[in-house]
Amino acid sequence: MNLRTCVFPCAGFGTRFFPATKVIPKEMLPLVDRPILQYGIEEALGSGLDKLIIVMSKGKDAILDHFDRTAELERSLSERGKLDLLAEVDAVSRMAEIISVRQKEALGLGHAVMQAKDAVGNEPFAVVLPDDVILSDEPCLLQMRHVFEETGRPVVALMEVSADDTSRYGIVGGKMLSGRRFHITDMVEKPKINPPSRYAIIGRYILPPELFTILGKTERGAGGEIQLTDALRELLRAGDFYGYVFEGKRYDAGEKLGYLKATVDYALKHPTLGGAFHAYLQGLMDDGKTAGAPRPVDRRAGDRRRV
Question: What's the CA gap between 168 and 6, in Å, rounded?
Fold first, then answer.
């Protein structure tokens, strides 16, 4: 019952964000002033989880570099008296000790989680999909942790979606209980017709170590990959399984429109940028222009210059 471990699957190619993620890991794309992954790391730490495991693939060393010490940069900032920037850099490097494991083949989310088996050990663990960024007063994982500690059973984060969107998510069936809890009796991955509810699983899970045994026996499913949902459905047969309709707003920052929405909302919440950014957006809404905004490009003038 000692929940202190969190697994971050970060081995995907980020194809929904091509070409930006051709070289840069999607988890390192900046959301205002920090990479997407850092928000997930901070959520885990704020929920009392301090053993952090990142499942990576080849070419994603920038993830570990971000949370490592950068002696040359720190020395340069110190010598130039930029102590405020030095403090920000130092805070990131001291934020957490990261354990990294490698997923050598892209065989699905279930396979990625399976790679963390030895690092997790025989204890419950959380899984955070960094693409799912959640803006909330209380960390989403901490909200879920309360349910886990009271029940001792697996918990997934749920979000109510429109009827038109149920075919885009794993949808749960069961019964809504009090306190935003949902007793899950069924899971359907991206139902085309007759979804069991409108409650979708999003990228937060608290799971028992027995899941690894199930994953080890799970055959390849949709897309020829080992699907985490298939293993969760098997885990469902072993006893009570809960969902929690979290308080907050979720963004799919792994795709372009969701990323843009998250950028706007997080920028508006930023302690130093929020006011000025709000004024800029208000100006756009009022008359379509703001003081100092760049003028539209005169394509005819550009054509003349190229002649």
Answer: 25
End-to-end CA distance of the chain: 72
Q: Mean pLDDT in the chain?
A: 91
Q: How many helices (H) and strands (E) does the chain have?
A: 12, 13
DSSP 140-165: HHHHHHHHHHHH-S-EEEEEE--GGG
Distance, CA of 173 to CA of 22 (rounded, Å): 38
Which tokens belong to 186? Answer: 């069924």
Q: CA 232 to CA 153: how far, in whole Å?
A: 12
The residue among 189, 184, 121 whose CA lies nearest residue 147 is 184
Contact between 6 and 113 under an 8 Å Cβ cutoff? The reply is no
Alpha-carbon distance of 126 to 149, in angstroms, equals 13
For the residues 281-305, what does the mean pLDDT come to? 59
250 and 159 Cβ atoms separated by less than 8 Å:
yes
Q: Give tens-digit pLDDT for 70-116.
A: 889 999 999 999 999 999 889 898 888 899 999 999 899 999 999 99
Is the pLDDT at 212 greater than 90, yes or no?
yes
Whether the model clears a pTM of 0.85, i.e. scores above it, the answer is yes
